[in-house]
UniProtKB/TrEMBL annotation:
<keyword id="KW-0675">Receptor</keyword>
<feature type="disulfide bond">
    <location>
        <begin position="762"/>
        <end position="816"/>
    </location>
</feature>
<feature type="signal peptide">
    <location>
        <begin position="1"/>
        <end position="20"/>
    </location>
</feature>
<keyword id="KW-0407">Ion channel</keyword>
<keyword id="KW-0732">Signal</keyword>
<keyword id="KW-0812">Transmembrane</keyword>
<keyword id="KW-0472">Membrane</keyword>
<feature type="transmembrane region" description="Helical">
    <location>
        <begin position="591"/>
        <end position="611"/>
    </location>
</feature>
<dbReference type="Pfam" id="PF00060">
    <property type="entry name" value="Lig_chan"/>
</dbReference>
<dbReference type="InterPro" id="IPR017103">
    <property type="entry name" value="Iontropic_Glu_rcpt_pln"/>
</dbReference>
<dbReference type="GO" id="GO:0007165">
    <property type="term" value="P:signal transduction"/>
</dbReference>
<dbReference type="GO" id="GO:0009611">
    <property type="term" value="P:response to wounding"/>
</dbReference>
<keyword id="KW-0325">Glycoprotein</keyword>
<feature type="transmembrane region" description="Helical">
    <location>
        <begin position="653"/>
        <end position="671"/>
    </location>
</feature>
<dbReference type="InterPro" id="IPR001828">
    <property type="entry name" value="ANF_lig-bd_rcpt"/>
</dbReference>
<dbReference type="Pfam" id="PF01094">
    <property type="entry name" value="ANF_receptor"/>
</dbReference>
<dbReference type="Pfam" id="PF10613">
    <property type="entry name" value="Lig_chan-Glu_bd"/>
</dbReference>
């Protein structure tokens, strides 16, 4: 029979002809036929039938809505059957129906939507919430209530808000259930959560079927249950869950809005059913308060009484959306007529050609104005009893929102809201629309919830599976460094630092963890930790403990706990004692430092000589004497033993700064030399990983370690240079032999291993700095809640000092730490004193600049251009300037005074000649005055 109806749909899908109009109605007909497809015996069907009939009555009583046209609603019962849904849809098409309200079932909507597509009749459903109905496959399907996509987003938001990571989905295995849970999985994945187990039930499942499904659920790890089903089945699931003691403390039950529908419409539940729901969370579609809604709610009791509805008279959001759906359709029809739409139908010639028998397929008609009406439906923007009502471009309702309901006591309470606009909140979403959307974790909040078991403490959300299976934990069966982890000979047990950290941490958990340690490796060669981690993802092990380094590649496949020991990579190489020699006093400074220091001694001495030469007799004399003076003065400042005094201000400033520099250099040299001569030092040609990479010598690494891949992939070291080593004895032998005898130049390994190795091999040392930062942790599957709890336990061990105690117990026997040995430190570099030299050099430059500016001004004052106009060349004036600079300043000043007296005498003679009117030659008088002046001298 199913194949038969499928063939009918295929025939209907093959196209149609627009010719052969059966009848043409006036532009504004008196009556427009609309269909309504409900399940009269269902809970939702009873209340929505009342709502749609009330909407039709209100529309027909108001001539302004359709301009005098009346709606004629034909209501048919699909009886929750897909087959009957097809039959009823065909019957609608025989009555020139322009649109269908319903069906309320997503399963039926999938079937009827195919007929609606072929006959171009809009199908408006307020209860078919399956998200896949919004696909391009069903262009004539119009969902007039929020899709399950938003409901599942709200549930995923709550899961993430309470920091749970895995849920169990219990659902009816039909289009409605499967597609809803698939959408939930997508929404959880966006928040790095997942569905750990899908518990599917048959649509016609019995209590025994529900029991069998829930028994399997109880054996699972997660305690977060999401129930997505129909109202009639949902209460049976909760009843069986309580029978199996699955509604006690530790469980979380989240029901989709089927449960809020029961709570809203059925009135007070019987005590036994109410106890089954205690602590559950459900969602209700949020409809903001308004005057329209209040008026409709106040009419509801009269409407149900007039319709003869008994038992289920409560108001539900489905009733509100059913009422608004009819109003939406009426406004779209009115706009359809305003645009000149015509209610006309066409016959499909293919149906008339078929010998349909008693099916009367040839009576079905295609609505010619279906596309125009559909476009007007999506363009409607109105305010209904559910609030503002409009569609987004993807044909979903604008700004969907839900209320979060907590079932407690004899009723339920609202603990918050969820909206696509702002996420979880404790205030109505419409109050947040005027603010910018904020989905930050700090902005997501709900009121306190009373969970199953009447507790307000947030459940952990998971337990160990109650199936008697122990956790299989892989442990490296090492051949070396058994202080960290090693198998006890002749037994299946393990001991060591890592094992004690694990057992101590797991004992801090507030629950028992059954586990079994399984050796990985043969005990003769160190196993590959990367392979051990991979086996967790393959399901061979449930976890892995031991000396497992946390690396980037490993974190991509498994989850690690908090590191319990820091262990980056280091370089270990042979070192030799550096003995003192005859030239040990030169060791504190590098050659460049010695050269620059010597040059500055000469520079400062020269600058002081220049500044003091014209003022200070100590800096004058024959050239040989002056050279000796400069050398003596400059180097004697090292001991502040200079005999010459400085008299110029600039010279004293330069000398003061230089003495400060000398003080710092002298102190540093003394400290470094003392350390060099009194402390035993070790030296090595390798100074760290950089110098090791730049060589071509072989490098050792621990067999089975991640070091090999790191050196090849990250440091680009040629694979031929790498030598695998297994035991500490192999390390020591390879390092002693060296590259020239088949050994290695250095070993690269984790610090934790190397510190233990060096405790008994003092002839080697760690060179340079630790060049990676990682640690060791215990590995679990990705997003494992046990990894989170173990991390918390490790942090507690660290805070109370227990972790350090375990470390000292296993790793404190270091023999070489008491010896006064250390690796050779670097010499004092020039860069350490570059600031001092810069300041001193700047002072010298500024002093010389000021000095020469002053000399130039003085020269211009004592030798004006008029006096030197007789010079034949510029070289003569330059020679005069250098002679002036070399001349003692006192001589320059004495000569200046004499010239001033001569100038005064000449001006006196000029005045006498002018007064007496004498014609005596001025040169003669001047020569006489000079002679007399010379005689007087």
């Amino acid at each position: 029979m199913r194949l038969f109806w499928t063939l009918i749909l295929i025939v209907l899908y093959n196209g149609y002809s627009s010719e052969g109009v059966n009848s043409t109605h006036p532009a504004r007909p008196k009556v427009v036929n609309i269909g309504c497809m409900l399940s009269f015996e269902s809970l939702v069907g009873k209340i929505t039938k009342v709502a749609v009939e009330a909407a039709v009555e209100d529309i027909n009583s108001n001539p302004d809505v359709l301009g005098g046209t009346k709606l004629n609603m034909i209501t048919l019962d699909s009886n929750s059957s897909g087959f009957l849904g097809i039959v009823e849809a065909i019957r609608f098409m025989e009555t020139d129906t322009v649109a269908i309200v319903g069906p309320q079932s997503s399963v039926i909507a999938h079937v009827v939507s195919n007929i609606a597509n072929e006959l171009q009749v809009p199908l408006l459903s307020f209860a078919a919430t399956d998200p896949t109905l919004s696909s391009l496959q069903y262009p004539f399907f119009v969902r007039t209530s929020p899709s399950d996509m938003f409901q599942m987003a709200a549930i995923a938001e709550m899961i993430d808000h309470y920091e749970w990571r895995e849920v169990i989905a219990i659902y009816i295995d039909d289009d409605f259930g499967r597609n809803g849970i698939a959408t939930l999985a997508d929404q959880l994945a966006k928040r790095r959560c997942s569905i750990s187990y899908k518990a599917a039930m048959k649509p016609e499942a019995t209590l025994d079927d529900a029991r069998d499904v829930l028994v399997q659920v109880a054996l699972r790890e997660s305690r977060i249950m999401v129930v997505h089903t129909y109202p009639s089945k949902g209460l049976e699931i909760f009843s069986m869950a309580r029978y199996l003691e699955m509604t006690d403390n530790g469980y979380v039950w989240i029901a989709t809005h089927w449960l809020s529908t029961i709570l809203d419409t059925s009135g007070p539940l019987p005590p036994d059913k109410k106890e089954n729901l205690e602590g559950a969370i459900t969602l209700r579609i949020h409809t903001p308060r308004s005057e329209l809604k209040q008026k409709f709610v106040s009419r509801w009791s009269n409407l149900t009484r007039e319709a003869g509805v008994t038992g289920t008279s409560g108001m539900s959001t489905y009733a509100l959306y059913a009422y608004d759906t009819v109003w939406l359709l009426a406004r779209a029809i009115n706009e359809f007529f305003n645009q000149g739409g015509n209610v006309s139908f066409s016959k499909d010639p293919r149906l008339t050609e078929q010998n349909s028998g008693s099916l009367n397929l040839d009576s079905m008609s295609i609505f010619n104005g279906g596309k125009l009406l559909l476009d007007n439906i999506f363009k409607v923007n109105m305010t209904g009893v559910t609030g503002p009502y409009s569609f987004t471009p993807d044909k979903n309702l604008f700004r969907p929102a839900f209320e979060v309901i907590n079932v407690v006591g004899t009723g339920f309470r609202k603990v918050g809201y969820w909206s696509e606009y702002s996420g979880l909140s404790i205030v109505p979403p419409e109050t947040l629309y005027s603010k910018p959307p904020n989905h930050s974790s700090s902005n997501q909040q709900l009121h306190s919830i009373i969970w199953p078991g009447q507790t307000t403490e947030k459940p952990r959300g998971w337990v160990f599976p109650n199936n008697g299976r122990q956790l299989k934990i892989g442990v490296p069966n090492r051949a070396s460094f058994r202080e960290f982890v090693g198998k006890v000979p002749g037994t299946d047990s393990f001991r060591g630092y890592c094992i004690e950290v694990f057992t101590t941490a797991i004992n801090l958990l507030p629950y028992a963890v059954p586990y079994k340690l399984i050796a990985f490796g043969d005990g003769h060669n160190n196993p590959d930790d990367t392979e051990l981690v991979r086996l967790i993802t393959a399901g061979v092990y449930d976890a892995a403990i031991g000396d497992i380094a946390i690396t980037t590649n490993r974190t991509k496949t498994v989850g690690f706990t908090q590191p319990y020991i820091e262990s980056g990579l280091v370089v270990v190489a042979p070192v030799k004692q550096q003995n003192s020699n005859a030239w040990a006093f030169l060791r504190p400074f590098t050659p460049r430092m010695w050269c620059v220091t010597g040059v500055f001694f000469l520079i400062v001495g020269t600058v002081i000589w220049i500044l003091e030469h014209r003022l200070n007799d100590d800096f004058r004399g024959p050239p040989s004497k002056q050279i000796v003076t400069v050398l003596w003065f400059s180097f004697s400042t090292l001991f502040t033993a200079q005999r010459e005094n400085t008299v110029s201000t600039l010279g004293r400033i330069v000398l003061l700064i230089w003495l400060f520099v000398v003080l710092i250099i002298n102190s540093s040299y003394t400290a470094s030399l003392t350390s060099s001569l009194t402390v035993q030092k070790l030296s090595s040609p390798i100074t760290g990983i950089e110098s090791l990479v730049n060589t071509k010598e072989p490098i050792g690494y621990q067999l089975g370690s991640f070091v090999r891949n790191y050196l090849i992939q990250e440091l680009h070291i040629d694979e031929s240079r790498l030598v695998p080593l297994n035991l500490p004895e192999d390390y020591a032998r390879a390092l002693k032999d060296g590259p020239s005898h088949g050994g290695v130049a250095a070993v690269v390994d984790e610090r934790a291993y190397m510190e233990l190795f060096l405790s008994s091999h003092c002839q080697f040392s760690i060179l340079g700095q630790e060049f990676t930062k990682n640690g060791w942790g215990f590995a679990f599957p990705r997003d494992s809640p046990l990894a989170i709890d173990m991390s918390t336990a490790i942090l507690k061990l660290s805070e109370n000092g227990e972790l350090q105690r375990i470390h000292d117990k296993w790793l404190s026997g270091i023999a070489c730490t008491s010896q006064n040995t250390k690796l050779e430190v670097d010499r004092l570099q020039l860069k350490s004193f570059s600031g001092l030299f810069f300041i001193c050099g700047l002072a010298c430059f500024l002093a010389l600049l000021i000095y020469f500016v002053m000399i130039a001004c003085q020269y211009c004052q004592y030798y004006p251009k008029s006096e030197s106009s007789g010079e034949s060349s510029r070289s003569g004036r330059l020679q005069t300037f250098f002679s002036f600079v070399d001349e003692k300043e006192e001589s320059v000043r004495s000569r200046s005074k004499r010239r001033q007296l001569e100038a005064t005498s000449v001006r006196s003679i000029d005045q006498d000649a002018s007064i007496n009117g004498s014609r005596i030659d001025r040169s003669e008088i001047y020569s006489n005055r000079v002679v007399s002046f010379g005689e007087s001298v």
